[in-house]
């Protein structure tokens, strides 16, 4: 059935670039060159990733002091934005109208 349809059909049904029976794209020399460049770049990346910069012993807690300093900086910036404490005596001080100096 597929061979019969392929031999009798005079074109690609529907859109020619999408779908199950689409027209295959021709591979140009630019496409091949770009793919080779991409694969070379990927191979170089894999080469550099496979060689670690630090040993696991060096990597363990190497940035603990820097992280502690940055955490303190963040904490101080958050507390700087926090408003001052307000006490109930400050809010209700205007109600002390019957209090005398002598008592």
TrEMBL record:
<dbReference type="GO" id="GO:0003735">
    <property type="term" value="F:structural constituent of ribosome"/>
</dbReference>
<dbReference type="InterPro" id="IPR016576">
    <property type="entry name" value="Ribosomal_mL63"/>
</dbReference>
<dbReference type="GO" id="GO:0032543">
    <property type="term" value="P:mitochondrial translation"/>
</dbReference>
<protein>
    <recommendedName>
        <fullName>Ribosomal protein 63, mitochondrial</fullName>
    </recommendedName>
</protein>
<dbReference type="GO" id="GO:0005761">
    <property type="term" value="C:mitochondrial ribosome"/>
</dbReference>
<dbReference type="Pfam" id="PF14978">
    <property type="entry name" value="MRP-63"/>
</dbReference>
């Amino acid at each position: 059935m597929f061979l019969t349809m392929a031999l009798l059909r005079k074109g690609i049904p529907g859109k020619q670039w999408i779908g199950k029976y689409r027209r295959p794209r021709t591979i140009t020399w630019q496409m091949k060159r770009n793919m080779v460049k991409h694969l070379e770049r990927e191979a170089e990346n894999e080469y550099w990733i496979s060689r670690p910069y630090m040993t696991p012993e060096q990597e363990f807690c190497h940035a603990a002091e820097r992280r502690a300093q940055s955490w303190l900086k963040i904490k101080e910036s958050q507390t700087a934005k926090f408003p001052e404490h307000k006490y109930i005596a400050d809010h209700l001080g205007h109600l002390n109208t019957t209090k005398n100096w002598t008592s």
